[in-house]
Amino acid sequence: MSTVSYASVEPLLVNSEVVGKRLRCSFRCPVGKGVFTGEVPIEPPKTARLASLSRWAESLGWALRAAVGAQPAAQDSSAAVEVTEEERHDATVRAFLAVNPPFLWDAERGSWVNAASAGNLNPRFTLRLAKAPVSDPEDQHVLARVLAELARADGHVDTEEWAFLAEFVLAETGSIYAIMDEPPLTAEELQQVTPEVRESVLMIGWALVLADSELRESETRLLSEWAEGFGIPPERQDRLRRDAARFVLAQHLSAAYPKGVLDPAIRDDAVKHARDLGLDDEEIAQVENLHRMRNAIR
Question: Of 219, 206, 215, whose CA–CA distance to 246 is shortest?
Fold first, then answer.
């Protein structure tokens, strides 16, 4: 097994429900027997960039939805739409990628298992968010404002960024449009964030800006100011930035192995981007090897 396919996740599927224009699926882990739910729009992203942002959101969304009963802000109360078998299968796979916590491929068992049972196949980024999820509503609101401030740091938020933020922000934090209009975070507000999740908030912020092709000075300045406001020392800031960079590289490498077969051009672009982010060749090799192990790619 080398990629996530409907055939590989269907044995774990215990329930799927169309809610408006979204599909909500529940999956049972074969180890520990826990049931985990993911929910995504039925219609897939229309552009490559939005698809990339969507994969990023699905990879991180479980961390922001850690609070019991939390749902995405973009809930659709309209009648359930008609869904073809192909659309349902595609959305089921994307919902599988959005569960809390994520599933990883276990080559020995020949099946997907919950990340809690995957041992050292979990990267530090995932482990940190699992250990310190941003689950308190007030902390989630601060995180939403962090993402909004970073998105508008260059003075412009395009349509795809709006769509990404609307999908990413939880209903409990308020409308993304209202959040975009809020003033910059103050030192007092940063100090009110739960100490245990401050590193998670900063690391997610770094992942957002590092995922783009261009890192702007305005973005790094904001992140440095927030790190200082959180009381995170410089050496920890660098560790969080590097862990975020490794996470971003892992997402790019996913696109470099379509159906488990290497696409050299996409990999070269991913490696170049990783070097631009400050990762050295040893770190890049570690991330790629981990990606291949997690997905049973030989």
Answer: 206
- The residues near 256 (Cβ < 8 Å, ≥ 6 apart) are 262, 263, 266, 267, 270
Distance separating alpha carbons of residues 225 and 185, to the nearest angstrom:
10
Measured CA to CA in angstroms, residue 119 lies from 124, 156, 197, 287 at distances of 11, 41, 22, 16
Task: Specify the pairing of strand 35-41 against strand 22-28.
Answer: antiparallel
Residues 210-249 pLDDT 10s:
887 678 899 999 999 999 999 999 999 999 999 999 988 8
Residue with tokens 């609070």: 67
Q: How far apart are the C-alpha atoms of 182 and 194, rounded to whole Å? A: 21
Cα angle: 128, vertex 215, 253; to 5 degrees: 55
Cβ neighbours for 193, distance < 8 A, ≥ 6 positions apart: 138, 139, 142, 201, 230
Helices (H), 65-186: 85-96, 124-131, 137-151, 159-168, 176-180
User: Is the Cα dihedral 112, 113, 115, 119 positive or negative?
Assistant: negative
pLDDT digits over 46-61, tens only? 555 555 555 555 555 4
Tell me the residue ranges of DSSP E strands in the chain. Answer: 13-19, 22-28, 35-41, 103-106, 111-114
pTM of the model: 0.70
Gap between the Cα atoms of 272 and 269, Å rounded = 5
What's the Cα-to-Cα distance from 72 to each of 132, 147, 187, 197, rounded to whole Å?
A: 20, 15, 28, 20
Residues 6+ apart with CB under 8 A from 113: 29, 30, 31, 103, 104, 105, 106
